[in-house]
């Protein structure tokens, strides 16, 4: 969950913490500077912010792929599905699901290989 006005990270589940190579929410917050921009690989940030803004002009959802740089220096391709909502406590927030594309590709390749051996 990300606050819309300043891109501040409000919550991250254990899966996101692990994907970023961190061991705790506090470590993730320190590594990213508490912002969504801190998750997005620097070379992709301008494009990502531009595309999200363009998509939000057409509605409340965004779908985008980009790269992240984990705390240990790995570069991972991810897919992001977000929805902008008005939330009573925090105001306008994004609920975002970020999937590791490389992990999905690996799982698909393994499943395909297993199917061929059966």
From TrEMBL:
CDD domains: PAS
Record-linked Pfam families: PAS_3
Chain ranges of the PAS fold-3 domain: 10-96
Protein name in UniProt: PAS domain-containing protein
